[in-house]
Amino acid sequence: MISFDRREFASFWRSILNEHDGQFVPLSTDLGNRRNGAIMMRHAQKSATERASDRRRILKLLALAPISRGLGASYANADERAANPEAVTDTKVAAIEASTASIPRTDRPQALPAEELKSASSSLEEALEIISEANRSIAQVQDYVCEFVKQERIGGSLLKPQVIRMKARTKPQCIYFSFQTVHQGREAIYHPTRFAEKIVAHEGGWKGYVAGTMHLDPKGRMAMSDNRHPVTQAGLDKMIARIHDNWHQHLQPQHVVKIERGVVIDNRSTTLVQTRHGRKEDEFEYHIVQLYFDDEHRLPVRFVGYDWPHRINEAPPLVEDYRFRNLRLNVGLSEQDFDPKNPAYKFE
Question: What is the assigned CATH class of domain 116-338?
Answer without folding.
Answer: mainly beta
